[in-house]
């Protein structure tokens, strides 16, 4: 008889834990949805401008790195012989 009571108690506690877990899951998704509604998304023009700036700066930095690489390579070849 004691085993039956322990089994029922164990089942009740596991079902309570499962219900609590489902409640937390639902709360997470509701909170996530609420946060997404607070986001101020950029318009297409701003995204296009910022993308253009990033591409230009990346190209300039690539050119600078290539020049430094060429200079270092030429300097090392000059020293070696």
Which short descriptors sum up this protein?
81 residues; mainly alpha
What is the topological layout?
Layout lengths: L1 H37 L5 H37 L1
In short:
The protein is mainly α and 81 residues long.
Describe the 3D structure.
There is one protein chain. With 81 residues, the protein is mainly alpha-helical. 91% of the residues lie in helices and 0% in strands. The protein contains 2 helices and no strands. The protein has helices at 2-38, 44-80.
- The number of helical segments is 2
SSE order, one letter for each helix or strand:
HH
Q: Tell me, briefly, the overall form.
A: elongated
Poorly predicted regions are none
Distance between the termini: 95 Å
Strand content: under 5%
What is the total tally of β strands? Answer: 0
pLDDT averaged over residues: 84
User: Using only CA atoms, what is the Rg?
Assistant: 31 Å
Structural class by helix and strand composition: mainly alpha
Biggest pleated-sheet summary: none
DSSP helix fraction: over 70%
């Amino acid at each position: 008889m004691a085993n039956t009571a322990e089994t029922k108690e164990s089942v009740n506690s596991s079902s309570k834990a499962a219900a609590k877990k489902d409640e937390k899951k639902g709360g997470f998704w509701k909170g996530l949805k609420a946060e997404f509604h607070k986001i101020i998304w950029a318009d297409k023009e701003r995204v296009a401008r910022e993308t253009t700036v990033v591409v230009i700066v990346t190209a300039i930095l690539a050119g600078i790195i290539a020049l430094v690489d060429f200079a270092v390579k030429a300097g090392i070849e000059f020293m070696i012989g």
